[in-house]
């Protein structure tokens, strides 16, 4: 098993996120994943603003996938489990699990981000040192 | 009656824009107004990108209002009537009417935008000369 | 001064709610107003689901207006002040104030909702009795 | 190679779909895929409304994936290539390619939908006959 670090975020489902079938529209799960990533960053000293400002990097998504297992309705408070999984490549890999208010698994997913040098508009092939340092301290 | 110029845009309603009541969620009308403004700009040589690039201005919205009279459903192609109405102040005033696929009036609205000097972050109190020139040529 | 009741909600601004000017896109304020209304309902025993289920009513918006005074950025936690204001007509009138993380006023707004008998698809001209009872107990 | 049918849709990118990095926010690609599917359905006699009304079925998404290769900016008209790919299981499998205004590949993706009997809330294990008939006529 690769090293990892997990964080749990609770999100309240908005009326405007639900579709005519009275369930959360599948595209809105992307927002819940992003809520999970942002909250993970705040809790574990891994903030995009700092990555951006201090390291001159952006971290664009190059892959996203999700498997839908149940539906979510308006008014539910859901639980997003966001797990950063260690990877030898210069990538940020997150795995997600979303649970409904009954604690049933609703969705699993994965995103992959890369490191982009903002000034040169070049992808980094090797892992930036701040990420290596961070991983040593935080992943177990 | 103040001088004005009207442009008509057709917009296709997305599934994801409809809510559990099976109608377009009221907040999504803001997108239709924006579609109308953008199409107006293209048709009448009044593009935000140019205002931004050539004149160093942004045109933030300071007021928006809408009155809802009917509902819109998924799959409808609606008609957005966007009218720029002359105003003596340094403001861009648009009036909107949205019609459903049966040509019934669904919504009326209004937006007011001002001119912001991007570098100084200052509002312009007098009308920018490019806008005065444009109005002379286009409004009737 | 009409009687009223105020509730305060805090909302976290999402990355996906911000536009290329690096500020919350003006249309997304509609979601913050809705967050305010929903939280108001929970706190003060005024839930749309109950209105819908127990009284066979929906409460469509017929008017919305907003005045933008400042901008909001990604990562801010904003404060939505939602005030139900007494009105003699068969309408639900909310006033809103949004404050940024420095407690500066960002936006004011207003929505008006009416009572629609779901089965007959008819507007109610007189106030439903449950709303009159609720107002007697809650508005001051 | 499995049999397939491809349809091409053009979509105009909205200002409100772009994020502070001045590119389309990755979650909004889900809307472009949906635009592609809907347009495919209209062009090839495969409409969700009919599937729903005439066959008592809904077709929920159980899987979605996307690979991002380039970015898209405000104002671009993009091209969505939507390909229904034959599959022996009781599933609707679409593959997508999005091209920017220079005809460069921006994103590839895939969705899988299943057939849900609306009344019984049961998944269909065998392919519904209308879909088998449709595939015989349309896939090549």
Structure description:
- Four copies of one chain form a homotetramer.
- The radius of gyration of chain A is 16 Å and the shape is elongated.
- Helix content of chain A is 24%, strand content 36%.
- The first copy, chain A, contains three helices and eight strands; from the N terminus they run βααβββββββα.
- The termini of chain A are close together.
- The first copy, chain A, has 140 residues and is of the alpha+beta class.
- The first copy, chain A, has one domain: Hotdog Thioesterase (Thiol Ester Dehydrase, Chain A).
- In chain A, a hairpin with a 5-residue loop joins β5 and β6.
- Chains in contact: A-B, A-C, A-D, B-C, B-D, C-D.
- Chain A binds chain D through residues 21, 26-28, 30-31, 34, 58, 60-69, 71, and chain D through 21, 26-27, 30-31, 34, 58, 60-69, 71.
- β3 of chain B pairs antiparallel with β3 of chain C, so a sheet runs across the interface.
Q: What is the count of DSSP helices of chain A, taking H or I runs of 4+ residues?
A: 3
Cα-to-Cα separation, first versus last residue of chain A: 10 Å
CATH superfamily of chain A: Hotdog Thioesterase
Shape verdict of chain A: elongated
Approximate helicity band of chain A: 10-25%
Number of strands of chain A: 8
Task: Classify the beta-strand content of chain A into a percent band.
Answer: 35-45%
Name the structural class of chain A: alpha+beta
- Summed up, the domain count of chain A is 1
Query: From the structure provided, what is the oligomeric state, counting identical versus distinct chains?
Result: homotetramer
Q: Count interface residues per chain for the largest interface.
A: A-D, 19 and 18 residues
Low-confidence stretches of chain A: none
How are the strands of the largest sheet of chain A arranged?
Answer: 1-4-5-6-3
Query: What does the main sheet of chain A amount to?
Result: 5 strands, antiparallel
What is the CATH architecture assignment of chain A? Roll
CATH class of chain A: Alpha Beta
Query: Any idea what the radius of gyration of chain A is?
Result: 16 Å
CATH topology of chain A: Thiol Ester Dehydrase, Chain A
Mean pLDDT of chain A: 94
């Amino acid at each position: 098993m690769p090293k990892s670090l997990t964080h749990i975020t609770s999100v309240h489902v908005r009326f405007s996120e639900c579709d005519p079938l009275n369930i959360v529209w599948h595209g809105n799960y992307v927002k819940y994943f992003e809520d999970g990533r942002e909250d993970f960053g705040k809790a574990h000293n891994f903030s995009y603003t700092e990555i951006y400002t201090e390291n001159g990097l952006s971290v664009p998504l190059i892959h996203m996938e999700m498997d839908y297992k149940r539906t979510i309705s308006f008014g539910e408070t859901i639980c997003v489990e966001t797990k950063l999984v260690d990877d030898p490549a210069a990538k940020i890999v997150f795995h997600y699990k979303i649970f409904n208010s009954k604690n049933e698994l609703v969705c699993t997913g994965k995103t992959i981000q890369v490191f982009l040098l903002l000034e040169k508009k070049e992808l980094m092939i090797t892992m930036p040192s701040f990420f290596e340092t961070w991983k040593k301290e935080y992943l177990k």
